Amino acid sequence: MTFRIHLFLFLLLPLLAFASPAGYRIVETPVMEPGRLEFLADGGFDVWEVRDGVATLLVTPDEAARLEANGFVLTLIDEPDPHAKAVDGFYTFAEYEAIMQEWAAQYPAIVQLSSIGNSHEGRDLWLLKISDNVATDEPDEPEFLFIGLQHAREWLAGTTLHGITNHLITQYGTEPRVDAVVNGFQIYVLLVSNPDGYVYTHTTERLWRKNRRNNGNGTFGVDLNRNWPYKWDTASGSTGSNLYRGPSPLSEPENAALNDWILSRNGRVAGCLNYHAYGNLVMHSWAWTTATAPGAELMTPLVTNMATAMHAVHNQTYSAGSWGVALGYTGGGVTDDTFHATYGIPMITSEVRPRTIGEGGFEPPGTFIQPAFEEQLEGCFVYLEWTLAHATDPTPPVITNFRHTRINDSTVDLFWNTDDPATREVLLTPAGSTPVTIGADKLRATSHSLRLTGLVPGRLYTARAVSTNLAHGTTTSAPLSFRTTLQEGQVWIVE
């Protein structure tokens, strides 16, 4: 039962209030004052939702005391049961393993199962491959990756991805849109990307979020969704935080194995959908800031269309937009940002039902499993079909409006546009020298810019923009030549 009492009462009753092994309690606090949300984000607090100027978060006694010492007014809203078990259709890890093995055994023509590595505690990181020619690696086909259960407690995210995977496998040959994506892609599914943490939620602590790294100081776990390289240093450095980023980027074997696998695909992964819970959100990068990410002009309409498709199923409202804006807080080292900025994969995170903690939060009823799957299935097909269209279009990108702005005698900014989500790169040729590649960047966008620094004053340069789209079509622009020194009455010469 959900109830509300002021936190000072709960602090007077520590034995009652902190009966769970980890001492966690769910609290609310107003965050309308400037800097409040930033304090929570920067401090590594486990924020669950932000609505109407109030943040809901999970805290330990020490975290509660730290918040109160910094002027936060806390209200206790619930005492979670740490020992909830898998019921009402939520699977254990062993059951997921058996299900994946059964898929591979029953549908060998389109399903393969392999392990890409092991967790801290030695559990397999099982990767399913779904393809019409599953035994053959088809280099001309784009690839699509699904990720589930990065956060151990998000059981409904796991059953949702399970339902989508089962649909792709069992409806092949009977449903045209399934045939189109299974024939057009090599699809990969990492159903349980945090097996140790997931097992722990079934045996010890239902609301456990992280993996099970022994941090060596009495604390355990790294947040796998804060352990990726891009802006990793802006995430929480406190080992006791539920958002702990780890000792270094990709320090966790779960993430290192996935990173190695992605790199082994040589740029063929054209899309990735990562399922989380809860909140009814569909999000693209950036996560580390509320600023607009390159490529937002393409990704914002996409997530909006996904939200519309999901709403049409059961009239559930889904908010769509960038990660940092839609959630109401930011996070460094997030999977989406590394995939977007480093791998060139236009990744989306979908937060499944429910919308609020009052509707079930991380512990929704089993009756949510089927409708959540039905909603997310429609959203995922919007993204699959968008990705397939872009990744199989042989038309090279068209480069327009290639131009420059001089900053000083050694720095120049270049700008250009493309008609297709493309990476950015520049071939720069100093006079009398051979071309060099500058700023190879995986960001997918239609508006591009690149700053050239360290140029030699007074030297003639020639630049060519190079853009490569999701189908690996490449276009090189016409040359743009310039000198880096003001000449002829302070007119910068473009030749």
What does this structure look like?
Helix 6 (155-170) crosses helix 13 (369-391) and helix 10 packs antiparallel against helix 13. With 495 residues, the protein is an alpha+beta fold. It contains 13 helices and 20 strands. Residues 1-21 have low confidence and may be disordered. The chain has an 8-stranded mixed beta sheet, with helices on both faces. A hairpin with a 5-residue loop joins strand 15 and strand 16 (436-452). It folds into 3 domains: 5-78, Alpha-Beta Plaits (2-Layer Sandwich), CATH 3.30.70; 93-391, Zn peptidases (Aminopeptidase, 3-Layer(aba) Sandwich); 399-494, Immunoglobulin-like. It has helices at 7-12, 14-17, 36-42, 61-69, 93-106, 155-170, 176-184, 195-203, 253-264, 296-314, 323-327, 335-343, 369-391; strands at 5-6, 25-30, 46-51, 54-59, 75-78, 111-118, 124-130, 143-147, 186-190, 269-277, 281-284, 319-322, 347-352, 399-408, 411-430, 436-452, 460-468, 474-476, 480-487, 491-494.
Give the SSE map.
Elements (H helix, E strand, L loop, with lengths): L4 E2 H6 L1 H4 L7 E6 L5 H7 L3 E6 L2 E6 L1 H9 L5 E4 L14 H14 L4 E8 L5 E7 L12 E5 L7 H16 L5 H9 L1 E5 L4 H9 L49 H12 L4 E9 L3 E4 L11 H19 L4 E4 H5 L7 H9 L3 E6 L16 H23 L7 E10 L2 E20 L5 E17 L7 E9 L5 E3 L3 E8 L3 E4 L1
Parallel strand pairs: 8-9, 8-10, 10-13, 11-12
Antiparallel strand pairs: 1-5, 2-4, 2-5, 3-4, 6-7, 7-9, 11-13, 14-15, 15-16, 15-17, 17-18, 17-19, 19-20
Helix pairs in contact: 6-13, 10-13
